[in-house]
Amino acid sequence: MILKDKVAIITGGARGIGREIALVFAKEGCSIVLCDVNTDALAATRKEIEALGRQCMTGVVDVTKPDQVDSFIQKTLDKFGKIDILVNNAGITKDTLLVRMSEADWDAVLGVNLKGAFLCAKAVSKVMMKQRDGRIVNMASIIGIVGNAGQANYAASKGGLIALTKTIAKELASRNVRVNAIAPGFIQTDMTAKLPENVKSEMLKQIPMSKLGTANDVANLALFLVSDSSAYITGQVITVDGGMVM
Which of 54, 154, 169, 244 is catalytic? Predict the structure, then answer.
């Protein structure tokens, strides 16, 4: 098991891509620490991880609140004594055209997607620098690379996350802390499952591989980026999009 005895924090880890990353890491021997705002989903995912024979700690955390983030990091240290991996996966969308977008919707998306990642990375980096070892994976998006009509707030947050990734990778490299970003394309989720067939058809036309990705496709890349197999990779943004952005 390539993550045996490691400890990973995954934000937004109760559902979707976060949950899949947690399960993939757990199967490779990792103890899992999950935070989310969905209590029921947290409990369900915890049961799945514990069924694999792994330890799992959970907490309801608003990643935009520094005191909640810092408290959760300290609780993790109290329980496990170290933090090897952070996956900044928590994210939201509030889509609408720029001229209709409220300041509240802008602030909410930037708050969770970018400020949340900043606060978690800042808190965890102090631990990892002291350990002289650590891995951070930020969940960006192809929308942060190419933009998308109706998603000015989301695109700005993910573009900012890419820039944040490159900057903290440079700051932490000398302490053996590697920082990379994953930029998923169209992934099969509860949201895409509800889309009308004509919308799905248009989406597929944009993808050279002519299929949607899966949460497992993203999780497997995350596993690679936190493993020793990627020991000389930092500051990179890797797309998981079936060739949509080249």
Answer: 154
